[in-house]
Amino acid sequence: MSAGAVEFDNPLLKKSQLGKSLERGYNLPPADFMYGRPNITKDGGASDALSGWSPKAPLGPIGHSERKPTERDFIALNKACVGAGLVRASDQSQYRATHDVRRRISEEEKSKSKVKRIPASMTFGISTRPSTPVFDLLEHKYQDRWLQERRKTELAKRERHQEKQNMNRGIYETRASLLRKFCPPVEDPPLWQMSRFSNKLPHLETFRSFDARDRAFAHHASDCTARTGTFGHGIYESAKS
Fold first, then answer.
1. What is d(CA 160, CA 154) in angstroms, rounded to the nearest whole number?
2. Which 3 state secondary structure label does DSSP give 236?
3. Residue 87 contacts by C-beta under 8 Å, 6 or more apart in sequence?
4. CA neighbours within 13 Å on the CB side: how many for 134?
């Protein structure tokens, strides 16, 4: 190969021509070159995608089996080694090199490995909700329906009450029967209070004397009629006609 060819192919050895900038790039491949990776999947192409996927279309290259090779069952190999009397690591490694046991695939793993295809008649999306009937809204059909349901509920309650009255009509209540059914009211337990405060009465007195207390209550009694609030402690009310 000549030096000129090496200089032309290697961009690091290129020299800029007189009056022209140096081209920094590689030569493109010929026109018949195809970019990208080859598509090994034989799925039918765009024609099958437009006309509907065929559920029997094979996947993978021609002659490729869908069944994947199973993994080696090392548990069974170790069991066979121990059964053959091989306990050393070197003997077991040699046994594994000369024997091969494949793991069985369960039915669950088979179902997972199968390709789930969408049927051609399947429709995607959610169903369209029926439109609200305008005539039922204008004629108050929903209100009439609710009133009818309420009326049926009330009639059923009255019938049950009437049946109870008919059942108890022939039974006469006596004092003994009333006392037997009477449940004495149980008072709620008092609120919890500390023992040192249970026997002591409040001794806080905010008035300076009893006369000041009486004058304050008398003033409040005379002034509460013009104030708002339940006890007359609010602001003054405006005059009422």
1. 10
2. strand
3. 81
4. 0
Q: What is the pLDDT of residue 43?
A: 66
Q: How many CB atoms lie within 10 A of CB 81?
A: 19
Find the helix or strand (DSSP H, E) in which 48 lies: helix 46-51
Over range 70-86, report the average pLDDT.
86
Cα–Cα distance measured from residue 70 to residue 31, given in angstroms and rounded to the nearest whole number: 45
Reading phi first (left if > 0) and then psi (alpha if -120 to 50, else beta), residue 232 is in left
Indicate whether this model's pTM tops 0.85.
Answer: no
Encode pLDDT of 201-235 as tens digits.
Answer: 667 778 888 899 899 888 888 888 888 887 788 88
Sign of the C-alpha dihedral computed for residues 12, 18, 23 and 28 taken in this order: negative
Q: Which of 33, 44, 42, 43 is nearest to 62 (CA)?
A: 42
Contact between 92 and 75 under an 8 Å Cβ cutoff? The reply is: no
54 band by pLDDT with thresholds 50, 70 and 90: low
Q: Tokens in use for 48?
A: 């099958």
Mean pLDDT of 146-151: 94
